[in-house]
Amino acid sequence: MSSSYNYTSKAIFFAIISLLITPFVVFAQADNIDQLISTLTSIITSIIPVVVALAILFFFWGLAKFILHADDETKRAEGKQIMIWGIIALFVIFTIWGIIVLLQNTFIEPGDPLRPTLPT
Questions:
Q1: Contact 59, 81 (CB under 8 A)
Q2: What is the maximum alpha-carbon separation in the chain?
Q3: Are residues 26 and 41 in the same domain?
Q4: Torsion of CA 31, 32, 34, 36, to 10 degrees
Q5: Half-sphere exposure (CA, 13 Å, Cβ side) for 78?
Q6: CB of 89 within 8 A of CB of 58?
Q7: 37-80, pLDDT tens digit by residue?
Q8: 25 and 51 share one domain
Q9: What distance in Å separates the CA atoms of residue 79 and residue 82, rounded to the nearest whole number?
């Protein structure tokens, strides 16, 4: 059972890595570096809301597990752990988002076409 779990987790890991590398291969024929940066920025900007939504769903899944299994102490502990990891994920996401905005405001001028816009 352990070997099939390792095989499945490795397959999922390689699938995720290949999905993350695909944009670099597809957009490798950009005319210049500005176009490549602009394209990668638009891809990352469109992924941010999905990642935030997944972190929020993860938190609420833990909350539901915590509430629905109030009588079972182990299930409550699992729900509590899931909620904690959901909060940590949201904290990391918004911290990185804040650092990106800070770097944009520091190093990239407002009229620069390379300045990415973060979703609001």
A1: no
A2: 61
A3: no
A4: 60
A5: 11
A6: yes
A7: 677 777 777 788 888 899 999 999 999 999 999 899 999 999 99
A8: no
A9: 5
- Tell whether 71 and 115 lie within a shared domain: yes
Residue with the two structure tokens 């390379």 = 114
Q: Any residues with CB less than 8 A from the CB of 80 and at least 6 apart, and which?
A: 62, 66
Q: How many domains does the chain have?
A: 2
- Amino acid at residue number 31: D
Quick: pLDDT tens for 7-32: 677 777 778 877 777 766 666 565 66
Both tokens of residue 82?
A: 């899931």
Q: Which two tokens stand for residue 5?
A: 């779990």
Q: Do the beta carbons of residue 104 and residue 117 sit within 8 Å?
A: no
User: Side chain identity at 45, as an amino acid letter?
Assistant: T
Q: Is the pLDDT reported for residue 91 higher than 90?
A: yes
Q: Residue 43 corresponds to which tokens in the numbers above?
A: 């891809």
